[in-house]
Amino acid sequence: xxxxxxxxxxxxxxxxxxxxxxxxxxxxxxxxxxxxxxxxxxxxxxxxxxxxxxxxxxxxxxxxxxxxxxxxxxxxxxxxxxxxxxxxxxxxxxxxxxxxxxxxxxxxxxxxxxxxxxxxxxxxxxxxxxxxxxxxxxxxxxxxxxxxxxxxxxxxxxxxxxxxxxxxxxxxxxxxxxxxxxxxxxxxxxxxxxxxxxxxxxxxxxxxxxxxxxxxxxxxxxxxxxxxxxxxxxxxxxxxxxxxxxxxxxxxxxxxxxxxxxxxxxxxxxxxxxxxxxxxxxxxxxxxxxxxxxxxxxxx
Length: 300
Prior knowledge:
Elements: E1 9-10, H1 16-26, H2 35-40, H3 42-45, E2 48-52, E3 55-60, E4 68-69, H4 79-89, E5 92-96, E6 108-112, E7 118-122, H5 123-128, H6 135-147, E8 152-156, H7 161-175, H8 183-198, E9 206-212, E10 215-226, E11 229-237, H9 244-256, E12 262-264, H10 272-279, E13 285-287, E14 289-294
């Protein structure tokens, strides 16, 4: 099967049901194939969709790297089909390891993309925090509980948009421009957050806020990635309240995300502080991702 043309068009809400059906069949593991991420990050990633026979193709065009195509949605593609897409578009990216066997026998360049690996955790382990390896997390939670003994963990919806965005901007001003967050990335996060609240019901998002005496101390927003996994899109906590982020994630695993045995906390983007924080929760697995380039091409 060789496509005559790739009719790329910008992803729109009109494609929502089509994509939702395709992703339910695929049951994806990688967070880039979260329906929510495809829509809320559209100002940054500029996603495009192409329909070719039984396949749906997604191409992302972020400003910080060359365009790339995600794994095709639909039946198992032939090697000829994949190579044709590769020649036309330059690369596949964020491919899961089990997809690489489809390139067997071809002369393509395969590169591990460690900065984009997703972090996968057992929800029950994150809710219990048992054992010596979680001593530090339990201590931080107890510290927050001593500071805010009457804290509340409240389920939120789109009506919390103004309060959540105000908290985010306050958090961003505290965080400033550090090695982990540039002003550009903060602006991108604000736009994605705004879209998440605007599309809350349409995208079936869920979330919760941590409050103390009526003051927000943090919030978390998540969604279904596949039948066993919830993916956390946003988690922000008060930098001046020790243990707030640990308490927020702990309560989310105990109350908000109880129908999922697995939690995906997405990538670390190669940021040392973020990588250390995500490793400190002892993931049960890192979901490896790969880039595939045509043979002889320059691998960015």
